[in-house]
Structure prediction request, 400 residues.
Amino acid sequence: MAEERPIYLDHQATTPCDPRVVDAMLPYLTGEFGNAASRTHAYGWNAAAAVDRARGQVAALIGADPREIVFTSGATEANNLAILGAARAALRGGDRDIHLLTCRTEHRAVLDPCESLKPEGVRVTALDVDALGRLDAAAFEKALNGGATLVSLMHANNEIGVVHDIASLSGATRERGVLFHCDAAQSVGKLPVDARALGVDLLSFTAHKLYGPKGIGALWVRRGDPPVRLVPQILGGGHERGLRSGTVPVALVVAFGVACEIAAVEREDEATRLAALRDALLARLSSELDGVHLNGHAELRLPGNLNVSFEGVESEALLMALPGVALSSGSACTSARPEPSHVLRALGLGAARAHSAVRIGLGRTTTPGEIERAGSQIVAEVRRLRELSPTWESRGRVRT
Ligand SMILES: *Cc1c(COP(=O)(O)O)cnc(C)c1O
Prediction:
């Protein structure tokens, strides 16, 4: 009997490649293997034409001009190029007081490049969020008044799914001539994302969060006046308008293009479907179990995301008890005892609640049957673990 694979509910970590995406990319690994930079034969011309087509598809998903798309290896590299590139361009321009304004709930791929600039004399401020993961617009404006070179704020959070209102925050940066970078790795393909309407200058995204392959992403760099100046971080053959050297991975780029095209067509219906499944799962967990707490704002949230704490149940123990469901805990396993992630800590959750947080990420392949089965397994295991727990038992006695 073939072993059944766990139900995959970790779509904020990565998504499977859509079979349509795989079909589109395969010919570019075999017959059409040319280097898009080869100008002297049909192998190169065909590869270049495929990259052009894909660049158009990727740009179209975010309402951009294809010339504004810089292909990178993913959102991590796009974030590094945006942050290091903009800060170093300001340094070269003779700016003596460079200030980066970001937020405590950002992905490490934003926080770490910011941090790395401190030895170069760059100031970094990471703003707080409230208990639901929201950034306060007034606090943001106040911080901007202290002077800033670049703001870097994510669109949707990868752990708690909370969506920042980027369009309303970017007005204040534009008035002050401050560059705005947005890490939109979780939102592109899930929420409506129009780079210009968001009012930002730089926007990162990645194929593997939207049913494309790992290893390809993009930085959108706004064209126009005033120009966005970036110092390239990878030097070589001058690919991608000199902003990112390295032979363009044609098959991955083709795949990214098709993934974006599919997302453009299916995003809206899919978001409605996922939000309904997600809400039904939360309603079931909350009705069948006591002590279920949603982490992060209930409505300002990605359609496919839940982050819940089950009182009295450590997330690591729960995940171990649920081999049939692929989930993620809100902990970083950097030590023997996993510590709650920086995102959960930024919410100011108590230790017990943070240690019991589980992320549930629904996606395109998620079926109602899977949600039904996963829900049953979660309810059963939470009950079983609570029965084994002396603290939960005493809590139960107090309450009854
Ligand atoms: C996944 C993710 C990244 C990293 O993207 P890669 O393409 O894996 O490098 C960055 N930021 C956010 C918000 C993400 O969810």
